[in-house]
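Hi, here's the filled form for the chain we discussed.

Project: internal
Contact: R.S.
Residues: 373
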Amino acid sequence: MRGGSFYRIEEKASLIHPRAWDLQRRVPFAIALAWLPLLVLAAFHGGIADLRALLVDYRVYTRVFIAIPMLLFAQVTMETRFRDMAQHFLDANIVRIDELSRYRHIMQKTRRLRDARLPDILIIIGVYAQVAYVLESGRLQFAAWAVDANGLTPAGYYSLLVTQALFIALLLIAAWKWTIWVYVLQRTSRLRLQLDATNGDLTAGLGFLSELPRAFLPLVFALSAVMAANFRSQVLTGQTTLDALTWPAVVFAALTLLVFFLPLGVFTPALVREKRVSTRRYGAMQHLVSLRFRDKWTNQPNEQVARLLDGPDVSSLADLSAAFTNIERMRAFPFRRSTVIAFLLALALPMIPVLTTQIPLKEVLKQLLEAVH
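And the returned structure, exactly as it came back:
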């Protein structure tokens, strides 16, 4: 995460330091940059009317006070989990000794991608392409503080060129870091990894990967909040209905889960192979041990039971059976239900204000509680 032109600019501006993300400094600065000039421009151009219209526009609040801070916080969660992931492959000896040089090469290539200038240029192009789209689409026509009889007001231009641009830039930076993360997963999955199908995490030692998507929860919450604010505005202004928004919301949720969970599937071939090989090997081993146990103990007189219980044979047979059970239960995809639930909550909670446009908040909360129980 700590690389690229935007990071270096913040570093030179003393907004960020090499060993700290300095959110206590960066978040207030970003909010002030995105919000305070809007107030001044709205007040000077349109007086009290424009200022009042801006102060009650929750779409602006959502971007400035929720989405932008969440996207900055996402940089911290992504770096922490990505770093832990890269280190865990080494600490748990999942990367074999003879594959260490290839693993180091992957990390070196990752750093070069992180520091490349071309993605930053494409991000700037993407930011202002989106700004041009918003300007052309006329989506600001329902913001009284942003548009007047002559077109965009100074506050409207500032909102597009700075506030919206800052939000989109942070979003695209996060998208680029996601791309690098997928690259690391894909390249690492091609190594000869040291997996063990008997591992209690039921994914041959790769269970830690199931927690990785949590790195993107602040990003998902930010996106859902911005989308929900736009949905609510469209319903209240009569541009659409709550029923018409059902499918877009469902598709958005499905795509979000696919984007952040599907990359883990690059390890599925290795997991399937490990389960197949281990089932055969441990199955044969368990059968041989069971035969020896039967030959040794089933013909013994009853008075030998106490010696059996005090010996290691029963424990060894039970341990081997437990290991084989883990192999049978092993999954071919690093998956954890709690992570999916966390994503669904991050997607659903910002949508509550949309539902309250037609359904009382009390009823919405009641239905949510019933769904949980």
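Let me know if anything looks off before we file it.
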